[in-house]
Amino acid sequence: MRRCIVGASAALLAAAGVIAAAPPAGAGCLYGGPYISKCDGPVQPDGTWQRCVAVARWVPSGLSSHLIPERHCGPMGPGQPASDLAFADPPTHIND
Questions:
Q1: Which H helix or E strand runs over 40?
Q2: CB within 10 Å: which end of the chain, N or C, has fewer?
Q3: DSSP 51
Q4: pTM for this model (two decimals)
Q5: Cα 69 versus chain centre, distance
Q6: How are the residues of the chain apportioned to helix, strand and coil, as percentages rounded to the nearest 5?
Q7: Each residue's pLDDT tens digit, 15-55
Q8: How far apart are the first and last CA of the chain?
Q9: Cis peptide before 23 (omega within 30 of 0)
Q10: How many CA atoms lie within 13 A of 24 on its CB side?
Q11: How many Å is the maximal CA-CA distance in the chain?
């Protein structure tokens, strides 16, 4: 019984170490402000990346209404035109 408890404790500590060493969940994302989230994908070999912006959209529903998240994605980086201010700010990769 004692070996089982010691083994379980060691496994729990090992798992906690792996979780503590993981990168933060918000890596590459900005939250708040006028947008729900703004996240950048990995930088490709040509220096470009994909940016996704989520905004709240107002939806009328009978006598009531509600907000739903709406996500827009587009290319960013050298040679890519920023068609919307949501994509242009910041002009650099969020992880940088």
A1: strand 35-40
A2: N
A3: E
A4: 0.62
A5: 14
A6: 25, 40, 40
A7: 433 333 334 444 589 898 888 899 999 999 998 889 999 99
A8: 51
A9: no
A10: 6
A11: 65
Q: What are the tens digits of pLDDT across the range 47-88?
A: 888 999 999 898 888 888 888 889 989 888 888 776 665 567
* Gap between the Cα atoms of 34 and 57, Å rounded: 12
Tokens of 49: 């990346």
User: DSSP secondary-structure letter at 81?
Assistant: -
Nearest to 37 by CA among 55, 59, 23: 55
> Which residue reads 């939806």 in tokens?
59
Q: At a CB cut-off of 8 Å and minimum separation 6, what does 29 contact?
A: 37, 38, 39, 40, 94
User: What one-character DSSP code corresponds to residue 23?
Assistant: P
Distance of CA 31 to the CA centre of its chain: 8
